[in-house]
């Protein structure tokens, strides 16, 4: 919310830059592979190999026909736990999701990358956005060992990091739509000793996510059903959610907002922008979201598709086989976004004009 204008200018300038910028976050092993590369990312190839930017492609990936007007899956997770349920993904199942989505030729990007049209993947790969809602300890927990904090390998982030060890071109790009003050430890990933998580670890977790390249997203103060409240309370919920992120990571530009329960406020415009005045200090907190996430709806439009509406981005919930079925349908119908590896052109295969 701060310095939005200067950020916008930087983004505009950056969109003409080489697409390798995001690759600085690839681990060393991927960098080593990149230096040995013989296949530049913008050169068509039907062979498997490692691209100049460190991405590892199978022959199947390289043969995929670019379509940058295709759809993009934005997948949505809640608890990562012991069992599969509507709002819970069993840990092994989450791990299998990562594996199968990777194998299908998808690599993670953020919502901000969609907004900025900076999907910097090589030809043949497809973007996927992972979104984690509610900031529960199950997504990100610490274990204290000999006075040191370690990321719990059984938490969502622990599983994600372990997956990266064997898939070095899977970058730390995901979106965390957080609550700073909700029940059951859904308060920046755990407080008050809930699931062993200390209140003083909260900001450290949010800062770590930001430093790693993950996108921070607002999900209101405590997950209010916004349709049931006055305009004033709606604005307080959204503004205080964003203010809490700013307390953890001062100056962070929160661009994405996820509607709790996918429910719009009566005054829909307030989901995008509004303000709240803190009674004690008289300080005014303003918010202005660039993206609003719905709770469901299937794969979302490409940002190059004129129908793309950043203020209503559809998602696919991690319930049962919804994600897998959705990805299979994209392939079957030929409606999947596939990168052409060239940031200056929008690849549109023949025959998709009247899709
Ligand atoms: Zn939620």
Features:
TIM Barrel, globular, disordered N terminus, 355 residues, binds zinc ion, alpha/beta, two-stranded antiparallel ribbon, eight-stranded parallel sheet
Description of the structure:
It is a single chain. The chain contains ten helices and 16 strands. It is of the alpha/beta class and 355 residues long. Strands 3, 6, 7, 10, 11, 12, 15 and 16 form an eight-stranded parallel sheet that branches. A two-stranded antiparallel sheet has the order 1-2. It has a single domain, classed as TIM Barrel. The longest helix is centred in the last third of the chain and has 18 residues. Helix 4 runs parallel beside helix 6. It is 28% helix and 19% strand. The N terminus is likely disordered. Zinc ion binds next to loops. The site of zinc ion has 5 residues, from loops.
Q: Which helices and strands appear, and what pairs or packs with what?
A:
Layout lengths: L3 H11 L13 H8 L13 E2 L5 E2 L1 H5 L10 E4 L1 E3 L6 E3 H13 L2 E3 L2 H5 L10 E8 L8 E4 L2 E4 L4 H11 L8 E4 L23 H11 L2 E4 L12 H18 L7 E3 L10 H4 E5 L6 E5 L2 E7 L15 E5 L4 H12 L22
Parallel strand pairs: 3-7, 3-16, 4-5, 6-7, 7-10, 10-11, 12-15, 15-16
Antiparallel strand pairs: 1-2, 8-9, 13-14
Bound molecules: zinc ion (ZN).
Short summary of the structure?
This protein is α/β, with parallel strands linked by helices and 355 residues long. The chain contains 10 helices and 16 strands.
């Amino acid at each position: 919310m701060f310095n939005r204008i200067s950020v916008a200018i930087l983004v505009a300038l950056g969109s003409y830059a080489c697409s390798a910028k995001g690759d600085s976050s690839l681990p060393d092993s991927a960098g080593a592979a990149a230096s040995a590369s013989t296949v530049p990312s913008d050169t068509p190839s039907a062979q498997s190999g490692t691209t100049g930017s460190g991405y590892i492609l199978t022959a199947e990936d390289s043969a995929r026909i670019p379509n940058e007007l295709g759809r993009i899956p934005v997948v949505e997770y809640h608890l990562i736990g012991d069992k599969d349920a509507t709002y819970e993904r069993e840990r092994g199942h989450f791990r299998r999701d990562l594996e199968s989505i990777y194998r299908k030729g998808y690599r993670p990007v953020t919502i901000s990358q969609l907004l900025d049209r900076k999907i910097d993947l090589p030809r043949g790969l497809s973007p996927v956005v992972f979104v984690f809602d509610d900031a529960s300890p199950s997504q990100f927990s610490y274990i204290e060992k000999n006075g040191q904090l370690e990321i719990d390998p059984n938490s969502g982030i622990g599983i994600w990091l372990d997956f990266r060890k064997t898939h070095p071109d899977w970058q730390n790009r995901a979106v965390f739509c957080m609550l700073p003050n909700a029940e059951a430890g859904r308060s920046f990933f755990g407080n008050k000793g809930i699931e062993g998580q200390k209140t003083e670890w909260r900001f450290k977790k949010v800062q770590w996510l930001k430093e790693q390249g993950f996108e921070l997203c607002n999900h209101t103060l405590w997950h209010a059903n916004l349709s049931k409240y006055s305009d004033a309370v709606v604005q307080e919920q959204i503004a205080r959610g964003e203010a809490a992120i700013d307390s953890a990571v001062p100056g962070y530009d929160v661009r994405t907002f996820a509607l709790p329960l996918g429910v719009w406020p009566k005054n829909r415009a307030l989901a995008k922008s509004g303000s709240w005045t803190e009674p004690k200090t008289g300080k005014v907190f303003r918010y202005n979201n660039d993206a609003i996430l719905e709770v469901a709806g299937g794969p979302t439009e490409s940002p190059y598709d004129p129908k793309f509406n950043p203020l209503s981005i559809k998602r696919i919930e991690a319930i049962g086989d919804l994600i897998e079925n959705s990805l299979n349908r994209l392939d079957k119908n030929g409606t999947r976004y596939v990168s052409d590896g060239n940031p200056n052109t929008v690849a549109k295969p023949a025959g998709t004009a009247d899709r």
